[in-house]
Amino acid sequence: MKSELKIGVALSGGGVRGISHLGVLKGLNEAGIYPTQISGTSAGAIAGAMYCQGYQPEEVLKIIVETNYFKFLRPAISWTGILKMSSIESLFKIYMAHNDFGQLKIPLTVAATDIKRGKAVYFSEGELIRPVMASSCIPGMFEPIEIENKYLVDGGVLNNLPVEPLDGICDFVIGVNCNHLPEESNITNMKKLIERSVIMAMNYNVYSRKAKCDYFIEAPGLGKFGVFDIKKASQLFQAGYTQTMKYIEENPSILELSKPNKSTLSA
């Protein structure tokens, strides 16, 4: 029996590292904890959309592994990006044909960044796929996506852990970050220097919102994985699942979220 508590889960962005979110969701579900609302940025928006659609975490992992995501990308002839994200819209439509927030089984909010106005924007109703794509639109790599006269890029630029849409609505909020960095790293080249610097900035964005979470799950060392390292998908999934099981063991109070209300038991 599921709890009647309103449980929100906020999922961070982080490229392919977001696959670990699926492992976290699997672990929570096995413990009897089922989100009643999800918010997500970038990879967290994609994982959240698929889960809210009704796919089991393992099903989403299988889809990711079997789908050649990169074949859907096309070069962009533009100063705003080197790739067109709009070309993968057809891929999303295979798995979310209704293209409507209102048709999801669990309410979802996705965060994006209005690059012209310098503001975070949130989508939770109406058209689904383009907002999810906008939330994942890495600046400089993908052309911004225009929605309602707003030029949108990756939500992680301003909000990489969108707890705000859950605040005041949910009884408990679980934050999930997929970008944990080792305390020290051997910086041997420019690429590693830039990657570590970007992830540090992303994590500062996340940790500034950590206090808004009742529980915070972060699998260690995921920052070492590349943004597009899809070959590590199963490893990332397992890392999220393993850390969630460990977190539940070390924080048994979270299991209170799985218990039905007394009113339910007496009904």
From TrEMBL:
Superkingdom per UniProt: Bacteria
Motif GXGXXG mapped to chain: 13-18
InterPro entries assigned to the protein according to its UniProt record, in alphabetical order: Acyl_Trfase/lysoPLipase, NTE, PNPLA_dom
Keywords: Hydrolase, Lipid degradation, Lipid metabolism
Residues forming the catalytic site: S42, D154
Motif (GXSXG): 40-44
Motif DGA/G per UniProt: ranges: 154-156
Protein name according to UniProt: NTE family protein
Entry keyword annotation includes Chaperone: no
Organism: Algoriphagus ornithinivorans
Biological process terms in GO annotation: lipid catabolic process
PROSITE patterns, per the entry: PNPLA (PS51635)
